Amino acid sequence: MTLELYNFSQSTCSLKVRLQLAEKNIDWIDKRLVSSDNEHLSDWYLKLNPNGVVPLLMHNGKPIYESAAILEYLEDKFTEKKFRPVDPYLCSQLRAWLIFVDVWPAPAIRTPSFHFGGLLEKFKKMSDEKFNELKEKRPLKKEFYNSFDKNLGFSEKDLFTSFSILDRTFVRMEYLLREFGGPWLMGKDYTIGDMAILPTIDRIEDLGLDDLWNERFEGVKQWLQKAQARPATKVAFYENSRLSEQFPKLNLGKGANSAIVKKYLETEAFSK
Ligand SMILES: N[C@@H](CCC(=O)N[C@@H](CS)C(=O)NCC(=O)O)C(=O)O
After folding, report:
1. Residues lining ligand 1, CB < 6 A?
2. I need a labelling partner for 65 at 20 to 30 A (CA). Which of 139, 140, 171, 261 fits?
3. pLDDT single digits (tens) 168-227
């Protein structure tokens, strides 16, 4: 059996699957791509994943894409260590959460990631022609790449919209922690529900936006510390998985962007 994962080191969607592979202690082959090389937009890759994104899992030559579908697939196929509740009700709640993650925080985190996380540094060096050519090649992301200025990033309004969606995610996490009794989102057992959101919450901290929860969402803060301390988390977040490591000159990390969070928290929009 061969299990190959096409992934980017820093990709939050790829990290979801790397976390699960590490937790399950499954051997896999690291087909690491570099986002700025754009191999994920080449013809051979688009034949395997028509969405033109990572992660892509190849299992015995068959392509599986969409990180949430991969998480479920690996739970179905590798059952020795389980990270999905057996109880159908709890499982329905887990799936509702996986959908929530894909619809709300997963797209929302892209805005601050691109704006603060060094990705603009790469685009600034690229000509407008090249940027537009690559945009046209993206099967699903053309509109997203149209929504920001490749040299300046996003507007403050866009950033605040993203913060507000992330805020709602923290509210939902606090609810799950209360509803199922913690310490994990689905209760006493760590599940793919935790793995699905961990890379996004870690990214928020890495971008220095952790004041979004400091003194506001104690449950999220505690949950993050506990999840980061798991041995498998350390394996999945191998060296250079974090943007602060890839772009040391940007001085990212805890608290680095607290000024904009302060402004966001003070805005009228937020207080309503
Ligand atoms: N819904 C997809 C989203 C995948 C996705 O957006 N991946 C990003 C990295 S986290 C990507 O490949 N981006 C490539 C690009 O922007 O060209 C999933 O969860 O697998």
Report:
1. 8, 11-13, 40, 53-55, 66-67, 102, 138, 141
2. 171
3. 999 999 999 999 999 999 999 999 999 999 999 999 999 999 999 999 999 999 999 999
Distance of CA 49 to the CA centre of its chain: 19
Residue owning the nearest CA to atom 14 of ligand 1: 53
Residue 259 pLDDT exceeds 60: yes
The pairing of strands 3-7 and 29-32 is parallel
Taking the centre of ligand 1 as the mean of its atom positions, its distance from the CA of residue 53, in whole angstroms, is 4
- Average pLDDT score over the chain: 96
How close is the Cα of 166 to the center of ligand 1, in Å? 18
Distance 13 CA to ligand 1 centre (A): 6
Give the whole-number percent of the chain exceeding pLDDT 90: 96
Domains with residue ranges and CATH for the chain: 3-77 (3.40.30.10), 88-271 (1.20.1050.10)
Compute the distance from residue 55 Cα to the ligand 1 centre, in Å.
Answer: 7
Q: What is the 3-state secondary structure (H, E, C) of 227-253?
A: HHCCHHHHHHCCCCCCHHHHCHHHCCC
d(CA 117, CA 203): 9
Q: Residue 101: helix, strand or coil by DSSP?
A: helix
